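Our consortium's second objective concerns turning raw sequence data into structural hypotheses that experimental partners can test. To show how far this objective has progressed, the report includes one record in full. It was chosen at random from the queue rather than selected for favorable results. The single chain below, 447 residues long, was entered without modification.
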Amino acid sequence: MTTNPRLPEPVVRKATLLSFVFVMYSYTTGGPFGLEEQVSSSGPGMTLLYHLLIPLFWCIPISLVAAELTTAMPVQGGFYRWVRAAFGDFWGFLAGWWNWTASFLLGSAYAVLFADYLGFYFPQLTGRNHYLVAAAVIAVITYINVRGIQMVGRISTLLEVFVLVPIAVMVVLGIAHWKHNPFVPVVPPHKPLFQVFGVGLALGVWLYSGYEQLSTVAEEVDNPRRTFPRALALVVPLSIATYFLPTFASLAALDNWQNWHGDYFSVAAKLIGGPLLGAWVALAAMVTNAALLNSTVLATTRMPFALAEDGLFPRAFTRIHPRYGTPALAIIVSGAIYAAFAIFTLTQLIAVYAWLRVATSVMTVLSAWKLRQRNPEMPRPFLVPGGRKGLFYAVAAPVFLGVLATTGSVADSFQRGDRLVLLSVPAAIALGPLAFAVSQWSRRHLS
């Protein structure tokens, strides 16, 4: 990491396997909240099938690629530097830029959701007060991240334990009160196919995204060549269980899939276990969004730091905190932008984010294929199993599902006449090449 030579080298407090597992889990999953709309739009049976099948085409192959490339190149900036090594500066910059700008939308969305759930207890929390709460949460999380990955890991562990306990109670009680077939109906009767396979699929891809993202902090993890694959092996099945089991148990106990909207898990918990469990799950949903925001800041703020180290971003972003060894300027600037974007609604933020996430994930898996061709001699302590067929699966499956999900998302936005999304998506994608052109001009004329 770049430091001032006149100052002593800061001691970077590295994450152990346990804390890194919770950091990764809180980034990729956090809790079951957010899938409720999938049940009413795609149907209970299709939703449960999505959570059994989507991981086979999305997070599992991406995790295998991330494990191979992290053991081969455990560097700060992670997947951005993999893409750059495979395809050059332009595509590497796009991977980094799209990831960082997508975090503006995602981090803001979590802050907005936190304020939304707090409104469950304080109905007067609207307008300006709603925004101030979201901005205050961002400020606290920004400070925690300046303190480093050990602090982030401790906070993530505490928050996720608080979230998982009431969810486990709800699952046990829901299965104990099993009265209905949770897979019926498979799809909603008389509903257009683009809603069943468009909205629900795109939401599923979003829920199972991010398993390559923590590669950006590889240098802040103890023995990343060993820790990263092990963390993935623990987090992926835990994430699948987190989404599938509460949905299965709630549908089996209640059979009211038409009512699944917004924060329905807290309603389901109240119906299954009483008001106390309902309030606990509602509070857990709010805490989940704080945990998601916490790990999002950690994963994405290393991106401008790595871009700046490679001369593709202003050098000021290479500054690190003299005590904690963290890229403090990148963290603070990112937090300020999150706060600015928190004025928008959740739907507006997520619709554009999904496109940027699919774009970076597709480039990540393609870089594994390219680096196998270009640098076959590169040491790879972990390899995607199955030889060439295994690598083809790990690359082709996410590309296929990503194209399918984004196409369905566009079809749904077009059908609903959502002009904001239809205009924002191409604008967000186009900003990447424009930013690269500005970066190249700056290097030639200002260096």
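The partners drew two points from this record. Residues 33 and 285 are 6 Å apart (CA to CA). Residues 1-8 have pLDDT under 50 and may be disordered. Both points have been shared with the crystallography group to help prioritize constructs.
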